[in-house]
Amino acid sequence: MDDIQNILQAMMRVAVSPQTAAVAIAVIGLNIHFGYTGLLNIGQSAFMLLGAYGFAISITQGWPLVVAILMGLLVAFVFALVLGVPTLKLRGDYLAIVTISAAEIVRYVGRSVGVEWLFDLTGGAQGIPGSQYRGSFTSLSPFGSGNTTILSFNYTDVAGGSVVVRLLGWAVVIGLIWMAVRIGRGKTSLEGTGRTAAIIGISAATILLAFFLAPTGQQNTGVDGWWFTFIAWILVGISLLIVLGLTKSPWGRALRGVREDEDAMRSLGKNVFAIKMQALIIGGLFGALGGMMYVLPATVQPDSLGRSITFFAYTALLLGGAATIWGPVLGTLIFYVGRIFIIASANTYLSSDKYINIMNSQQTSQFAFILVGVALMLLVIFRPQGILGDKRELRFNV
Amino acid sequence: MSRSSVPVRVAGRGLAALAFLMLVAPLLLLLGSTPANALTLCLPKADESACIAGTMGSRANPIADVDVILTKPDGSTETQTTEDDGKFAFEVAEPGDYLVGVDPDTLPKGSELRPAAEAGLRGPDGALKVNGVQLGRSYAATLTVRDADFDDSTSTLDEILQSSVNGIRLGLLLALASVGLSLIYGTTAIANFAHAEQVTLGGMLGYLFVNSWGIPLLVGGLLVVIATAFSGWFQDRVLWQPLRRRGLGLTQLMIVTIGLSLALQYTFQYLVGSRTVRVVLDTPTVRDFGPVRITNQSLAAMAIAIVVLAMVGYALLRTRIGRATRAVSDNPALAQASGIDTDKVIRLVWTVAMGLAGLSGLLYALVTNGIKWDTGLQILLLLFAAVTLGGLGTAFGALVGSLVIGLVVELSPLVIPGDFKYAAALLILILLLLVRPQGLLGRAQRVG
C-alpha cells in the first residue's frame, strides 16, 4: 500500500503542477486551431517557445512584467501572421508541413551558438535560467513564505488511514469524474447554466477529495509552489471563459463553418482566409501564454519546448475531446497524470529488485512515451471524439 | 569534410545534436572518447562539484607540459600542467561561466591556440568559454592547437566545390527517402510523418546485422533493404489498408502517422539507448580529387543511390506497374475504374518506399559514421521540404527537390552561421510556397 500511495502522491503532484496547467492553456489554443477551425497546426510548441523567449528576454532586458507578457504575445502574433500568409490559402497539409518546419527553425535558431548577440539573448541550448526572469513574478506573491498542505486533515485522520477508507475514497473520485463526464457529454437532463454549475461543483468536490486522499504540500511562493500553481490554474479558468465566449458567438459558428465546408462559407460571403487567420492568431496567443507559464517554474530551454510538446498537446486534445470546452483541460490532466502513473508504476514494479526488474530508470520513461504514441494511434482510430467530443463534429477533412 | 576538427562545448545532447548538424564524422569519434577521459580524471558529485576536462592536442598527438588556465566566475584562476597524455581536468565547486585558456609561452614553439569556431564561445586571448556550468555534470573543453603561421583560408572556389559535392551526396541520400514519401503521398494522400523512423530503422538494422552480428556489409545491406521493405508491406497490411477500408479521414491518418513516429522513436531509444551506434567500425579511407576530399564510403553510397534512383525512374516510366502507379497517383477513382487494382499498387508503393527509406538510412549511417534514435527526425523536415519543393506527389519533383535541399544545406554555411543551415532549407520552402505553391515540378492546379 505504501508503494501505491507513493504513486498516487506523484500523480497528484503532477496534476496540480503549474506546468500541467501551462500545457492545458496551450492545448486550449490548439483546440481553437484544430478542434474548431480544422487547422492542422503541428507547431504549437513554437508559439509556446516564442512566447517564453519574448517574455524572458524582455525581463532580462529590464522591462516590467506587464510589458514582458505583452512582448511574448506580440512575438506569437507576428509568428502567426508569418505562418498564415503563405499557407492558409492552400490545402491543410501545407499548413502542417510549414508549421512543423517553422517550429524547428525557431528551435534551431534558439539553440544556435553561432551569432554572438543572439547567443547572449537566448543562451543557446542551455537556455535562460529561470532565476533571471522569475523574480518580478515571485515578488508579486501575497502568499508569504512557508509550506502549506491543502486541507488540514487527510485520510490518515479517518479510521487511522485504513485501506478501506482509501479504496472507498478513490472509488468515489472515479465515480464523480464519470458523473462529470456524463453531464459534460449532455447525457443528462441538465441544460445551460445548471449544467455548467453541476460540472464546476462536481469538479470542486473531486479536487477536494483527491487532496484529502493524497495530501499535497508545497512551498507557498517558491518555484513550483502554490503561488505558481494558483496563477496557472486561474489562467486556465480565464482561458476557458474566453473560449466559451468566443465559440458561442457568431464568430465561433463561422469557425465551425470553415471546418465543415469552406466553399459553403465562401458562398455566404465570408472571408475564409481572414477567419482562419484570426483563429490561427488567437490559438497562437493562448500557446504563447501557455509557454510563458510553462517556463516560469523552469528554464527557457529550446529543446524542452520541441516537437514532443506539440505531440503531447495533440494526444491530450484528442483524449479529452476536440471541439469541446472542457476537453483540453480534462485531456491534459488525464494525459499528464496517466503518463506519470505509467512511469511511476514501471519504476516501482518493473524496475526494482523488490518486484520485477526488466528495465532501467531511463527505459521506464521511454516505455511511457511508447505507450503515448500507441495511445495516440488507437485514439484516432477507435475514438476520434475522445472522452467528451461529438463524433459527428470530427468527420472533417483538411 | 575540410574542417577537420571544431572545438565545441560539450554538453551531452548539445554536442550530439550539433555533430549531426555539422555532419562532421571525426566529431563522432570525439563524442565517444571525451566523456571517458573526463571520467578517469574527475568525477562530478551531485550538488557538490562539476568537472571541466579536455585534452591538449589530439588523442593521437597529445601535447605535454602546457599550462592550462581556468578562469572562474569570480575572476580567480587555477592552473594545471598537462601530463604526457595531454589531459587536464578541473574540479569546480560553483556553477557559472568559466573560461579555459592556456599560457601561450608553454605551448610548443610556433603554435597557437585555435579560436573556437563558434563566435559565442570565443573568449579573450583564444580562450574557450564554458558557459552555464551546473553542478553534478562534466563539461568537455576542446582546445585545438595549430601552427601560428597556419593559413585556414582555403580558396572560396575550393570550398564551394567541396560543399557542392557534399550537397549532392546529401541530396542523393535524401532523394532515396523522399521519392518514396512522395509516392506514398501521391497514391494515398498521406503525409507520412513516420517516414523518418524508417530511415532510422534502416541504419539501426545495419548496426544490428553488420556491427553486432558480424554479417558482411554487402549481405547485411541487402538484408536491411529486404527487412525494411517487408516492414512497409506489413504496415500496409495491418495498418494502412484496414484504415483505408474504414474510411478514416486524412487528418486523422496524419495524426496516426505522428503517433506511430512517436512510438517508434522511443522504441529505438528503449532498445538501443540514446547513444550513436555505427554500422562499420573501421575509419573510412579518404580520397582527394583535386580540391575535393571524399571518403570511399561516400562515393559508393552516391553510386548506389544513383543506380537505385535510376531504376525507380525507369520502373515508373517504362513498366506496366510503374504506369499503374502514376495512374493511381493522378486519379485513384479513374485508375480503379479502368481496371487497376489500386490496393495492390498502394501495397507495392508502401513496400518499395519503405525499402528505399531503409537503404537511405543505411547509407546515411555509413556516410555520417553513425545513427541515433533521432537521426531520422533530423532529416524528416528536409524530406518534407524536398517533397514540397519538388511538388507534393511527384516522384521526379522529389528528386529535384532533394538535390536542391541538399545543396542549400551544405552551401549555406559558407554565407551564414552553420547552425542555421537547416533553417535556411526550411525558409526556402516557406518562400517557395508563397510564389509557387504547387512546387517546382507540380502542375498548377487548385490546391486550396
General description of the model:
The complex is a heterodimer of chains A (398) and B (448). Chain A is mostly helical. Chain A contains 16 helices and two strands. Chain A has two domains: 10-150 and 216-394, ABC transporter involved in vitamin B12 uptake, BtuC; 151-215. Chain A has a two-stranded antiparallel ribbon. In chain A, 48% of the residues are buried. Chain B folds into two domains: 9-59 and 67-147, Immunoglobulin-like, CATH 2.60.40; 156-435, Orthogonal Bundle (ABC transporter involved in vitamin B12 uptake, BtuC). Chain B has 13 helices and twelve strands. In chain B, the strands form four sheets. In chain B, strands 1-9-2-5 form a four-stranded mixed sheet. In chain B, α3 (156-188) crosses α8 (320-330). The radius of gyration of chain B is 25 Å and the shape is elongated. The two termini of chain B are 43 Å apart. Residues 1-40 of chain B have low confidence and may be disordered. Classes of the chains: A mainly alpha (398), B alpha+beta (448). At the A-B interface, α4, α5, α6, α14 and α16 of A face α1, α6, α11 and α13 of B.
